[in-house]
Amino acid sequence: MIPVAEFKQFTEQQPAFKVLKPWWDVLAEYLTVAMLMIGVFGCTLQVTQDKIICLPSHELQENFSEAPCQQLLPRGVSEQMGGLREVSGLKNNLDLQQYSFINQLCYETALHWYAKYFPYLVVIHTLIFMVCTSFWFKFPGTSSKIEHFISILGKCFDSPWTTRALSEVSGENQKGPTTGRATATVEASAGPGKANEGEKEKVLVEPEKVVTEPPAVTLLDKKEGEQAKALFEKVKKFRVHVEEGDILYTMYIRQTVLKVCKFFAILVYNLVYVEKISFLVACRVETSEVTGYASFCCNHTKAHLFSKLAFCYISFVCVYGITCLYTLYWLFHRPLKEYSFRSVREETGMGDIPDVKNDFAFMLHLIDQYDSLYSKRFAVFLSEVSESRLKQLNLNHEWTPEKLRQKLQRNARGRLELALCMLPGLPDTVFELSEVEALRLEAICDITFPPGLSQLVHLQELSLLHSPARLPFSLQIFLRDRLKVIRVKCEELREVPLWVFGLRGLEELHLEGLFPPELARAATLESLRELKQLKVLSLRSNASKVPASVTDVAGHLQRLSLHNDGARLLALNSLKKLAALRELELVACGLERIPHAIFSLGALQELDLKDNHLRSIEEILSFQHCRKLVTLKLWHNQIAYVPEHVRKLRGLEQLYLSHNKLETLPTQLGLCSGLRLLDVSHNGLRSLPPELGLLQSLQHLAVSYNALEALPEELFFCRKLRTLLLGYNHLSQLSPQVGALRALGRLELKGNRLEALPEELGNCVGLKRVGLLVEDTLYEGLPAEVREKMEEE
């Protein structure tokens, strides 16, 4: 016996799989149940009751036929058969064993096979129908996809986010586009237009109607938001996996075709053989030696009932076959391997819901036969717009205004800055911090600034670092005169948003990105004509020339920085038009000579040529035309010597020559009487010219990381020195004249060959322990009173 519990697994699968069973499959199931009952009922009768009853015939054997058997029919049947007379009372002289023997023998030899096996055939055919109907639910290649699909479908249908998303778009369709936050649209979903929607849509939206208080109560909690986020990922992966093939579609067609073929075969042979189920059967067997008779008249006791069951069975098979034919028609009269969400897009307003294909499309077509509401709710998780809304909602949960305020800091310019990095989006709560003056967004993809940006009334600085951003026109008007500084960093400069070049109140523009190889030579940049107040322009790229659009701001541009990352900058003629330029940086531009265009900049005050390939600076004489030049940075190059006519630069105040290949300095350098800072560190200097003592304005001297073995005594005539960096040289002693540098506040002596420090260091009243960079052993060698003086606050 099989316990009932063994069938539990089938009852558990039924509720899940029913969504993939259209009405014809459901009808076919009921028909197979009815046919199975017919077969089981016939088999039960066949097993439990006598199958046939035979009596010997007294007619001559050679004249034996079915006519004598018909004389034994009941009266009503006899009249119908032609009014034959009734024969009774004959004695056969047979015992019970002989009758039983004859019954069995005649059942096997005389009764037609269709009449014998009819109930078993019904059971077998019905089981085949049942297998054909449910085979794709059991086959490993299809059942795994079906189970996964149904699991995801149920979660999508029951997800609170589905109701939330459909409620929002319902409200938007009724009241039009809203400029408020996403949470406000739920109020619109309870509008009066809801009464005109379908019943199923009412079921989705009715739970939101009770929300008339603050919109916050309709927000998903964090757990529900994370579950919805995981569902989006599952749907994406499932779609990619299922759309690759059409095994479900093919399997369904094959099992339907098999059922149709089976239907025709059953119908044909049943119609042919159903008349073989006869109530009386003539039986002739050679048993005269055993029973004394060779001819018998037999009664098939189940014939009347089997004939009625056969007609019922054929009727059910016909109905079943019609459903199979309709299934074939449904399969082939429309493209079931493509599914369009056009109606859902029109109804919900989510225009980005993609159409699907192959097995994914086929399952959705089957779902529509069950209830199209499933497809509508499932489509929410195919929409990127819906996914972005969910991400936005989760972001708002995670980044509360209180948490964001904890990240506020003052930047280098003293502005109150909020920096956000590597977030999946921009939280709406950012725009509740009206005190923010600078906003820095890094590695945040696909930013679309919402209308809430207008709440940041103090915003003056915006940084978009690998964070492409879209700005509606209304917000462009809002930022046009307010924003003063903007930084944009991207892979290619053509990704810079166009609205950046329309901010007419902008004072500083910092761009970083590469020109595509085909555009690097032209170095085309968007027009800067609208930037009427631009004073600072910084461009880090691989341009071959100065962009022509730079001349659009020639009248008011004060600082230009070009960082080329080693790419050679060939054409600089555009620089001549920058008459108002005060600061110029040409960093890593591959320059081998100082560009002549620079000497035309009469207003230039600071020039930085860092990290180029300068070997000779003979052109330094031409800097006398730049009468306002006070800072010259020629560091990180390959300069081997400084020409003597450096003396012409009497107005120069800062000269940076570090990280070069200098071995000597010209004596004429001492004639640059205005020099306040001289940096020649990281070179190969072995000595310093005594003429440096003429630099009476010198306050900062850096000669670290050279090969100096001694210092000229004249150096200590520079009484205004505040910083003297002598570290990592070959100095063996420090002159006591160092005590004359009373303004000295920082002295570096580390990495030399000093054996002791002069006690005259105590005369440097501005020098404290924190400003003296020297080995501890040398410091401890100073007199105690000198050390005490240095350690005083």
Automatic annotation (TrEMBL):
Main location class: membrane
Keywords: Cell membrane, Disulfide bond, Endoplasmic reticulum, Glycoprotein, Ion channel, Ion transport, Leucine-rich repeat, Lysosome, Membrane, Repeat, Transmembrane, Transmembrane helix, Transport
Subcellular location: Cell membrane; Endoplasmic reticulum membrane; Lysosome membrane
GO biological process, one term: cyclic-GMP-AMP transmembrane import across plasma membrane
GO cellular component, one term: plasma membrane
Transmembrane spans: 27-47, 117-137, 310-332
Gene3D superfamilies reported for this sequence: Ribonuclease Inhibitor
Catalysis performed (reactions): taurine(out) = taurine(in); 2',3'-cGAMP(out) = 2',3'-cGAMP(in); iodide(out) = iodide(in); chloride(in) = chloride(out)
InterPro entries reported in the protein's UniProt record: Leu-rich_rpt (IPR001611), Leu-rich_rpt_typical-subtyp (IPR003591), LRR_dom_sf (IPR032675), LRR_domain-containing (IPR050216), LRRC8_Pannexin-like (IPR021040)
Top-level taxon of the source organism: Eukaryota
Membrane topology: Multi-pass membrane protein
Region feature (Disordered): 168-200
Record field: compositional bias (Polar residues): 168-182
LRRC8 pannexin-like TM region domain location: 1-328
The name this protein goes by in its record: Volume-regulated anion channel subunit LRRC8E
Annotated source species: Panthera tigris altaica (Siberian tiger)
Gene: LRRC8E
